[in-house]
User: Which sequence fits this backbone?
């Protein structure tokens, strides 16, 4: 996609494997160093990622608990994680593992109990409503499991909505390109109710892409779709990473969906138990199969075990 | 199940507050209107019991056909019977069981001057002088000081009047009768059991009352009623009244055309006729009650829809553990019952309180009412029932939805698409079209001259008011029916501006409106009805003001207009005094001539006026369709207003037989009566002398001396007629409803007593300082107290201030309906927000700021309120213009649309929308984005 290569510095086909691989390695290394001196490391961590520019978002010592006193539920337990630029990272884990909470905290939808969250070097966890709105306009795109579209607006209007809300100029060529890629050229004038679930979700993808956010957070984007529609949506997400260097963080419990990702994180009981790079579908399946056997996460297949696992 | 319902009600109580307020307001209006009617009714009936307290009344037997008969001096009786001879009182007094009998003479239009020398003013209540003496007592009056007035130099005062005038027994003051002021001494002060609703009651000697009554009555020797007491101190029971009435009827001479009826019956009739006349007040209040309850049922429906939607999973759970649909239904409906009871309870108290407040307010303003203002059991029951029914109606559909919840409820965020509004659109449009057609027909009826717009006489004879009202009702209901179909086009039209200013939020808001068109239309309907009523009356009021101003600005050449507050008659002394004031070039006096018939029939809608020719040249320049009004008067012809000419098919040159009946003293009969009486007395004296009863003879002599000679004056009716040509037909609205003749002709036809000087116009000498002249004129009429001299501006403002007062009341009602409408909009938005929780969350997630969400909801609210207001303005203004056009000839010559007022309404609508959107928007924003979008 040479004619659009200009829009992100790292969006080239060649840079993909190399940069993602290195980012992942760094992330793993940083996580290890954090385990020993958690608080102090945060500062170092910050500067490292900034200089590097290979990290689009990261969490430092992120905890989230619900309830009070007797009934405390720990959703996230001192998590340190980085998300690489130009990568699709899948977060997996059983129900209640904290995978959604992690994503919500990363995206500024939820506030951490302690710890920090940064997106593009901006501390999300310390932002007020106005700053959060600003963040969502500039840096973040969302794809939800369902109800992604405003029912009163047509597909085209939905796609352009983020730009119009933030009163940004519309890049028509970019719009046309996205629309072509998601294959919705013929359906732009339709209302969401006139679109199939897969089409709706593709519109949501296009909308998330339209504002060229730093990172797209996708919350079970294929959760409500049949397998064909799921494939279409996931292919599109994968293409957007490959061709435009889009950074995507996706929460899913579907190993098939996770297999489209460059990196797969597995959460259990609020901690990251697995960090896999370019895992195959079988590898992912294996992790969950063994998990089901003995309730103990197996040894990582492609990467070092994150420090939290040993705590 | 009931326990679940009760617990739900408790946990939802906060959300019910708005519904409770709406129900309470509606019920308050209902209960208040019943209280108010009850209060007026008891006030009227107790006043009747006090003021018309005779045990038996003797009145005419035939209902008078001649409705032009002056009822000035007559009591408040609704039906007009033929007049009966005063002399019957003497006959009746001799009937067994009669304590006293007298013709009741009440004179209205008198003015009492207070301690400080100013006329005592009332809040529209009359000042009445009632004849009373020890021999002709007023039983309900109890003297607290002094005694009955004797002769023309004494008066007694009702306690309220005495307080108001700051007078006590022995004080001297002035009372202004029709013929001018008179110095009098206060002989006594009396009280009555009931308050007199602000009326100033003056007791005068019966002979004085009869004298002034006779001056205005068509026949001084007759009365409408003769009041009979059976007992001087205590009222008779109904049976005793009947007995007495029967006795009197037996004694009444044949041919007297009189009949005795019980006091109770007369009071009942009179009370009913007054109550009927006041009857319009309650429906007016009830209209606003209906608006409040309509919105109330609506708010309740919305609230329950929200509650039910949020509790759907709970209901599904109940169903899955075995609850029947009926049981689920009852958990919802029990909440509606509680809400209805609480709301109506508060409303009843509120309505009661409002009436109490009104009573206190009126008493402060000078109209004390002693009527029963507590709500009756039936009033409270009606209020309670209405509140409950409205609550149940509102909750019924949401409750049904709850009951039909499938045991496994898939939470479906996307609301089912609305049923098509096309059918409603068509029905509404047809109704509106019929309404407009009805108005077109009204217009045709009003403007058609002579034969009317259609070939059918029956159709042409329809009163214009009927199709006018019918059309208005059709339009209002049609617009409400049509409403949902109008939401989309109105949303697009009204949303055009906001969508261009606020591209995204404007568009989102506009589209959101079309999602639930019925709900939006119903919300707007509350404002629609209120605004329609007020803008209609606003147009009529503005037109009335403008028409008067226009007449005066363009037509009035005279410098001052003089009229009298005391029932319209200008005292001759005042007329003379004005004429003699220096700087006055000339005066023109208009005299109303009574009892004039044209071609043998009296014309109810016309007032016959005797006026000099100068009226048409120097006071109001006449515009005529034929002939010159000035020349016509000078030539002894009639000048007829266009509407009267049209009604009677008169044309210039037609000859009409004008006749007038005057009552004159029948010298011959009087002489005979006096001679007869003397003979009778002499016979009695001689008889007694013969019987050796010297004292008795002396007594008879003395009695004869004390007899009021007026009772022996016999009168006769004299009818004179002459053929007169119609000389001109005037079209100015200032002359509308009038038939004008020269003073000479009036004097030829009728007695001067039958002519009442109604108004007078003063033309100043050229170059005269008008301000100084005004001062001099005011000084000249000062002794007459009731005569006002108005310059052009004051003349204009006499109508304006009255119109403004009416408008003030209307605006108060509008304010109430606006408050209710705000509730409606708040509620509708709240429901809409709760339905769109996830959508708003999504918008927030993709970067919509809080301000933008607020903006979106504000735009929605403003469009709803502007939509309702515009519709109301449109139909209200249309109705106002129609009324103006139909009643053009009755003083609404000029159409004036109060644009500035209408613009204020629109601005107000925008403000209302903005205010209404605040709380729903806050509620929408309070919800964390996460809650809104998370799918778990």
Assistant:
């Amino acid at each position: 996609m040479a004619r659009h290569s200009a829009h992100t510095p790292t969006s080239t086909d060649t840079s993909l494997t190399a940069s993602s691989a290195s980012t992942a390695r760094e992330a793993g290394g940083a996580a290890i160093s954090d385990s020993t001196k958690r608080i102090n490391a945060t500062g170092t961590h910050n500067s490292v990622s900034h200089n590097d520019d290979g990290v689009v978002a990261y969490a430092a010592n992120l905890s989230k608990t619900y309830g009070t006193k007797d009934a405390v539920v720990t959703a996230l337990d001192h998590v340190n994680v980085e998300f690489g630029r130009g990568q699709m990272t899948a977060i997996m884990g059983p129900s209640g593992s904290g995978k959604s909470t992690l994503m919500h905290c990363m995206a500024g939808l939820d506030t951490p109990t302690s710890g920090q969250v940064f997106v593009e070097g901006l501390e999300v966890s310390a932002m007020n409503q106005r700053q959060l709105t600003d963040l969502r306009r500039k840096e973040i795109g969302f794809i939800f499991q369902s109800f992604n579209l405003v029912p009163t607006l047509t597909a085209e209007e939905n796609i352009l909505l983020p730009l119009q809300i933030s009163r940004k100029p519309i890049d028509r060529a970019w719009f046309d390109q996205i629309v072509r890629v998601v294959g919705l050229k013929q359906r732009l004038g339709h209302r969401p109710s006139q679109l199939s679930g897969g089409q709706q979700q593709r519109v949501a993808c296009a909308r998330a892409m339209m504002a060229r956010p730093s990172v797209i957070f996708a919350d079970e984007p294929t959760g409500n779709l049949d397998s064909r529609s799921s494939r279409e949506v996931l292919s599109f997400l994968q293409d957007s990473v490959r061709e435009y260097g889009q950074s995507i963080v996706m929460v899913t419990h579907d190993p098939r969906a996770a297999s489209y990702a460059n990196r797969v994180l597995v959460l259990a009981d609020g901690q990251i138990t697995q960090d896999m790079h370019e895992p195959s579908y079988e590898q992912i399946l294996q992790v969950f199969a063994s998990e089901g056997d003995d309730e103990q996460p197996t040894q990582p297949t492609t990467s070092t075990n994150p420090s939290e696992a040993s705590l | 199940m009931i326990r679940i319902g009760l617990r739900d009600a408790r946990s939802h109580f906060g959300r019910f507050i708005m519904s409770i307020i709406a129900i309470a307001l509606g019920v308050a209006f209902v209960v208040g209107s019943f209280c108010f009617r009850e209060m007026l009714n008891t006030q009227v009936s107790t006043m009747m019991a006090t003021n018309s307290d005779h045990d038996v009344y003797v009145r005419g037997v035939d209902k008078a056909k001649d409705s032009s008969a002056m009822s000035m001096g007559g009591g408040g009786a609704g039906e007009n019977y033929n007049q009966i001879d005063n002399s019957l009182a003497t006959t009746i007094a001799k009937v067994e069981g009669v304590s006293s009998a007298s013709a009741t003479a009440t004179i209205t239009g008198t003015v009492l001057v207070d301690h400080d020398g100013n006329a005592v003013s009332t809040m529209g209540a009359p000042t009445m002088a009632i004849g009373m003496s020890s021999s002709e007592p007023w039983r309900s009056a109890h003297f607290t000081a002094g005694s009955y007035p004797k002769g023309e130099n004494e008066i007694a005062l009702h306690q309220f009047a005495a307080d108001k005038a700051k007078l006590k027994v022995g004080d001297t003051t002035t009372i202004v009768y029709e013929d001018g002021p008179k110095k009098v001494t206060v002989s006594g002060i009396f009280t009555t059991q009931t308050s007199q609703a602000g009326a100033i009651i003056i007791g005068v000697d019966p002979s004085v009352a009869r004298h002034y009554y006779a001056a205005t009555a068509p026949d001084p020797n007759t009365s409408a009623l003769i009041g009979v007491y059976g007992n001087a101190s205590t009222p008779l029971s109904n049976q005793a009244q009947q007995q007495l009435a029967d006795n009197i009827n037996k004694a009444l001479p044949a041919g007297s055309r009189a009949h005795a009826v019980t006091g109770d019956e007369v009071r009942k009739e009179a009370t009913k006729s007054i109550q009927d006349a006041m009857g319009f007040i309650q429906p007016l209040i009830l209209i606003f009650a209906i608006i409040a309850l309509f919105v109330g049922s609506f708010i309740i429906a919305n609230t329950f829809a929200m509650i039910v939607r949020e509790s759907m999973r709970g209901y599904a759970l109940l169903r899955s553990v075995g609850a029947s649909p009926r049981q689920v239904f009852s958990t919802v409906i029990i909440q509606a019952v509680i809400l209805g009871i609480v709301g109506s309870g508060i409303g009843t108290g509120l309505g009661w309180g409002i009436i109490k407040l009104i009573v206190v307010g009126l008493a402060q303003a000078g109209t004390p009412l002693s009527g029963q203002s507590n709500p009756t059991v039936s009033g409270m029951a009606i209020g309670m029932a209405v509140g409950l029914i409205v609550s149940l109606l509102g909750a019924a559909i949401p409750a049904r939805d709850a009951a039909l919840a499938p045991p496994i409820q898939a939470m479906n965020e996307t609301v089912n698409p609305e049923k098509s509004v096309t059918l409603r659109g068509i029905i509404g449009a047809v109704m509106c079209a019929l309404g407009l057609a009805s108005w077109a027909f009204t217009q045709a009826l009003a403007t058609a001259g002579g034969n009317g717009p259609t070939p059918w006489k029956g159709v042409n004879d329809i009163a214009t008011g009927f199709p006018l009202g019918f059309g208005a009702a059709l339009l209002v209901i049609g617009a409400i029916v049509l409403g949902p179909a109008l939401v989309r086009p109105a949303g697009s039209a009204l949303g055009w501006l906001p969508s261009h200013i606020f591209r995204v939020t404007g568009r989102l808001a506009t589209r959101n409106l079309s999602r639930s068109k019925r709900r939006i239309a119903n919300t707007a309907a509350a404002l629609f009805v209120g605004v329609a009523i007020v803008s209609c009356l606003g147009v009529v009021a503005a037109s009335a003001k403008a028409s008067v101003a226009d007449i005066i600005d363009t037509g009035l050449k005279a410098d001052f207009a003089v009229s009298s507050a005391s029932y319209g008659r200008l005292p001759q002394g005042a007329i003379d005094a004005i004429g003699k004031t220096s700087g006055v070039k000339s005066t023109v006096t208009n005299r109303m001539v009574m009892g004039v018939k044209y071609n043998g029939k009296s014309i109810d809608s016309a007032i016959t006026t005797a006026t000099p020719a100068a009226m048409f040249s120097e006071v109001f320049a006449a515009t005529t369709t034929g002939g010159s009004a000035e020349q016509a008067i000078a030539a002894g012809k009639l000048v007829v207003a266009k509407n009267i000419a049209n009604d009677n098919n008169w044309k210039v040159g037609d000859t009409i037989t004008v006749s007038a009946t005057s009552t004159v003293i029948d010298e011959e009969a009087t002489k005979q009566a006096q001679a007869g009486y003397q003979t009778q007395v002499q016979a009695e004296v001689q008889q007694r002398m013969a019987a050796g009863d010297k004292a008795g003879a002396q007594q008879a002599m003395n009695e004869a001396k004390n007899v009021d000679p007026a009772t022996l004056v016999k009168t006769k009716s004299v009818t004179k007629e002459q053929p007169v040509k119609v000389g001109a037909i005037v079209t100015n609205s200032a002359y509308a409803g009038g038939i004008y003749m020269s003073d000479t002709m009036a004097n030829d036809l009728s007695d001067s007593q039958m002519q009442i000087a109604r108004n007078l116009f003063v033309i100043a000498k050229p170059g005269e300082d008008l301000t100084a002249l005004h001062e001099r004129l005011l000084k000249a009429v000062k002794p007459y107290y009731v005569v006002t001299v108005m310059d052009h501006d004051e003349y204009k403002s006499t109508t304006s201030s009255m119109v403004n007062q009416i408008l003030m009341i209307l605006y108060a009602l509008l304010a109430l309906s606006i408050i209710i409408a705000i509730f409606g909009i708040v509620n509708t938005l709240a429901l809409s927000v709760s339905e769109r929780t996830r959508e708003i969350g999504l918008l927030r997630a993709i970067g919509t700021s809080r301000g933008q969400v607020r903006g979106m909801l504000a735009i929605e609210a403003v469009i709803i309120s502007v939509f309702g207001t515009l519709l109301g303005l449109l139909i209200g203004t249309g109705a106002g213009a129609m009324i103006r056009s139909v009643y053009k000839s009755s003083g609404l010559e000029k159409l004036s649309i109060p644009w500035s007022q209408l613009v204020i309404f629109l601005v107000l609508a925008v403000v209302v929308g903005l205010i209404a959107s605040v709380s729903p928007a806050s509620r929408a924003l309070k919800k964390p984005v996460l809650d809104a979008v998370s799918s778990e």
